[in-house]
Every structure is written in structure tokens, then in C-alpha cells.
Specification:
The protein is of the alpha/beta class. It has helices at about 15-30, 45-55, 95, 105-120, 140-145, 195-200, 215-220, 235, 260; strands at about 5-10, 35-40, 60-65, 70, 125-130, 135, 150, 155, 160-170, 170-175, 190-195, 230, 240. Strands 4-3-2-1-5-11-7-12 form an eight-stranded mixed β-sheet, with helices on both faces. Strands 8-9-10 form a three-stranded antiparallel β-sheet, with no helix packed on it. Pathway: Protein modification; protein glycosylation.
């Protein structure tokens, strides 16, 4: 049997949210044997996300801090996950607690996904897929073969235009990235995948709340040497995922007055 791919997607409420999720879902629809963990940075389910998931044909689980609507694996599932107290808050809590670039975006969500996996999966592949990136469906064919940890290039990261392991003789001998910053693994969140069995064997570490060092901290905790990492995408010569970013919608996005639009399509 082919191993199942668990895609962990952090998401948060904003005007672009359902558009991002739609684009991502329609890529994931092309991938067999995949389970999508949609993990929202919110304390209560978002109605628009729930109705999006209602018609979403990708097998998925919707996770929040502790309430989960799960389909089609289990019908309703309550995961006793709690936000670290210092980060607890309302919608988009990370963005409210941390101003500017200095906030760990998506970390609590990814960790909620990892905790769910620890309780629900024994084998398979873990992949962190932010909601705003762009994925070629072939990256999922590649990562399905991951035995421990695999890596591959990510386009549109820093001014270098790409972040990639440096491969020689089929082994990773270094990293090409515009921001090394003393990291042992200077890679993007979208640039690696982890085997579930391997992850569990390494005591299922979580991601640190450490801006810019989330990937590095997580990968270090897996205690793997660069030369043991499996280079994918033809020895890291192909870009199959891009760290795209969506321009924020106009802040002036306004709903029509409800009294003027009753009994119409609006
Ligand atoms: N995110 C989140 N809460 C926030 C901000 C971001 O859950 O307050 C999610 C977002 O949906 C995305 C991931 O975290 O999947 C990374 O955020 P973003 O794309 O803003 O970061 P960047 O790619 O710019 O580093
Ligand atoms: Mn992003």
C-alpha cells in the first residue's frame, strides 16, 4: 500500500482565506491517499471555512485549539489540544499577540496538527503546506517515498529566488538560502517532508515558537544528519513548490447593508 500523506495547513481568518484554501484544495484533489489537516488559528470554527469544507472532496480534518469537525475519517472528533497560555486569544491570535514580522505565524496550528497525528497516525508522510503557497501536484508523488526526512528546492524564497539543499553525489552537502542565520537547516517550511514512523520514533517533537527558526528547531529535534536526508525532485534540480504570498485585499472590503439586500442574491 502507498503511504498516506498528511498535509498540515495552518490557516487564519482574513478576506483571502477561502480563496487560498480553494486553490490549495484543487491541487490536493489531484493527489490520491492524502489526508488534509486544516488547522485554523482561531478559538471557534469559522463559518466560511466550515461551509468550504462541506463541499471539499479532499479527505480532511478541521482542527482548532480543541474543537474539530472531522470527516470523512471520523464524524466528530474533539481533540484536547490547548494553545500555550501566552498565545491564547481570538482569531488570528498569532497576529494579534505579535506585531510586525516578529511573530511565529502558523506555529500553534502546525503543532495542533502534529499532536493530532501522534494520536491518529502510525505511518505515512508529514508535509507542512501553508495555505498561500503554490504546489505542483508532482511534489506529492515525490514526498510519498520519504523514509526519514526528505528535502527539495522551494522557489521564491528571499532575493536569491530559491532555497535549496546543495547536492553532490546524491547527498546533501550544504544549503543554498538567502538567510543562513547560523541555522543548521536553512530551509523553508515547504521544503521538507518527514516520515511518520521516523517522527514518532524521534519522540514526536513540536515546532518551536522561534521566529525564523521554526524549521531549524523542528529538524534539529529530529536528530538527523544532513547527509542522511533524502534529496528529491531529481537531486534538487526541479522546483515543484513556490513560497508565493498573496497581496492583502483592500482594507475597504465592505459587505452591502443587509437591510438593502434582503430577498436578493447579495
Ligand atoms: N497564519 C496563521 N495565523 C496568523 C498568521 C499566519 O495561522 O496569524 C498561517 C497562514 O495562513 C500560513 C502560515 O501561517 O499558512 C504562514 O503565514 P504567512 O503566509 O503569513 O507567512 P509568510 O509566508 O509570509 O512567512
Ligand atoms: Mn506565506
Amino acid at each position: 500500500a502507498t503511504p498516506k500523506i498528511y498535509v498540515i495547513t495552518p490557516t487564519y481568518r482574513r478576506p483571502e482565506q477561502v480563496a487560498e484554501l480553494t486553490r490549495l484544495a484543487q491541487t490536493l484533489m489531484l493527489v490520491p491517499n492524502l489526508h488534509w489537516l486544516v488547522v485554523e488559528d482561531a478559538v471557534a470554527p469559522t463559518r466560511r471555512v466550515l461551509s468550504f469544507l462541506d463541499t471539499c472532496s479532499v479527505p480532511h480534518t478541521y482542527l482548532l485549539e480543541f474543537v474539530v469537525a472531522n470527516k470523512p475519517l471520523i464524524n466528530k472528533c474533539y481533540v484536547p489540544y490547548r494553545q500555550p497560555p501566552s498565545l491564547a486569544g481570538r482569531q488570528g491570535m498569532a497576529s494579534r499577540r505579535y506585531k510586525g514580522a516578529n511573530k511565529p505565524r502558523g506555529v500553534s496550528n502546525r503543532n495542533a496538527g502534529l499532536k493530532w497525528l501522534k494520536g491518529h497516525a502510525k505511518e505515512g508522510i508529514i508535509y507542512f503546506a501553508d495555505d498561500d503557497n503554490t504546489y505542483d501536484y508532482r511534489i506529492f508523488q515525490e514526498i510519498r517515498e520519504t523514509k526519514q526526512v526528505s528535502m527539495f528546492p522551494v522557489g521564491l524564497v528571499t532575493r536569491l529566488g530559491v532555497s535549496s539543499p546543495i547536492v553532490s553525489g546524491g547527498k546533501i552537502i550544504g544549503f543554498y538560502d538567502g538567510w543562513i542565520a547560523g541555522r543548521k537547516f536553512p530551509v523553508d517550511m515547504a521544503g521538507f517532508a518527514v516520515n511518520v514512523k521516523f517522527y514518532l520514533k524521534k519522540n514526536a517533537p513540536l515546532m518551536p515558537y522561534n521566529v525564523g527558526f521554526e524549521e531549524d528547531g523542528f529538524l534539529k529535534a529530529l536528530k538527523i544528519k544532513p547527509e542522511e536526508i533524502e534529496p528529491l525532485a531529481d537531486n534538487c534540480t526541479k522546483i515543484l513548490v513556490w513560497h508565493t504570498r498573496t497581496v492583502k485585499s483592500l482594507p475597504a472590503l465592505k459587505m452591502p447593508d443587509s437591510d438593502k439586500v434582503t430577498k436578493t442574491n447579495l
